[in-house]
């Protein structure tokens, strides 16, 4: 797995995941449940990961959508 984006904003991560899934790229949200530990303060970013084989395509999809990858 390779991280292609990171954000403390769960809505943004959800949007980016939807972009990738619409493009046929499977992805996983890492650290999605960290907010239970951190108290919801947004200190820890959620990470969006894809397989290494899909990483270049995923970054291209995000870039083409105007969402520069953070991770």
TrEMBL record:
Coiled coil (UniProt feature): none
Source superkingdom: Bacteria
Family matches, as InterPro entries: DUF2007, N-reg_PII-like_a/b
Annotated ranges, domain DUF2007: 3-66
Matching Pfam families: DUF2007
SUPFAM superfamilies: GlnB-like (SSF54913)
Name of the molecule in the record: DUF2007 domain-containing protein
């Amino acid at each position: 797995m390779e991280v292609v984006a990171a954000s403390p904003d769960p809505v943004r991560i959800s949007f980016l995941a939807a972009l990738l899934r619409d493009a046929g790229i499977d992805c996983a949200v890492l650290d999605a449940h960290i907010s239970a530990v951190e108290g919801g303060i947004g200190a820890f970013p959620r990470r969006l990961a894809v397989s290494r084989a899909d990483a270049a395509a995923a970054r291209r999809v995000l870039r083409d959508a105007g969402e520069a990858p953070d991770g």
